[in-house]
């Protein structure tokens, strides 16, 4: 497969690949993999948080917690 890119884009890709010490093909694969992972993460629905039904609670007094108060 081949795609047409501008000479400026080719120069940028070659420069980035040289800075990272990888081939242009490896850099393109890395960029595509990152983009694919970002798209998958974006499309994945957020997990639903659990709901705990703890019932109603009234006011809490010290006598409810400790036996030293009568």
List keywords for this structure.
mainly alpha; 70 residues; 3 helices; single chain; 54% helix
What is this entry, summarized?
By secondary structure, the protein is mainly alpha-helical.
Give an overview of the whole structure.
The chain has 70 residues and is mainly α. The protein is built from three helices and no strands. It has helices spanning 7-20, 24-43, 62-65.
What is the CA–CA distance across the termini? Answer: 84 Å
Uncertain regions: pLDDT < 50 for 5+ in a row? none
What is the N-to-C order of secondary-structure elements (H for helix, E for strand)? HHH
Number of strands: 0
Structural class: mainly alpha
Name the average pLDDT: 84
Q: Tell me roughly what share of residues is in helical segments.
A: 40-55%
Work out the radius of gyration: 29 Å
- How is the biggest beta sheet arranged? none
How does the overall form come out from the CA principal axes? rod-shaped
- Please report the number of helical segments: 3
Topology summary:
Elements: H1 7-20, H2 24-43, H3 62-65
Helix pairs in contact: 1-2
